[in-house]
Amino acid sequence: MPHSEIENELKHGTGTQGRKLRVYGLYKKNPTQKAAVDFLKNEFGWYGHSHTFADGTSGFIDYQPSKGMTIDHYNTNSKSTVKWTEIEKYLRALVATDRYLTAEEKAQYKEQQLAAVGLENIAPPPTTEP
What we know:
- This protein is 45% helix and 18% strand.
- With 130 residues, it is α+β, with helices and mostly antiparallel strands.
- 14% of the residues are buried.
């Protein structure tokens, strides 16, 4: 499976609202690989969905805590599994290179962080122009 297909799938998140931002928040804390894998297994859990590949063909993506991500490509009748340690590396790289969240998602994450410390309704200080 091409790396771009795996990255595109992971950029869609975990299928539940807010989880993508939690994954992002995890990597902002620079966790160990083991801590990240344990978190991801729990966060993704048992989850699957139909998938359309970049070439327009279809398949199914299945996440399982014991395996990782299984990619079933219907047109070629092939399956491949990406282990959690590899998923963790992909996600770490996507966050580190600022390719995981969209601009809108980054704004949501910032709002969540401000709300967590009670600063969501405080206006920024005015800027002074020379």
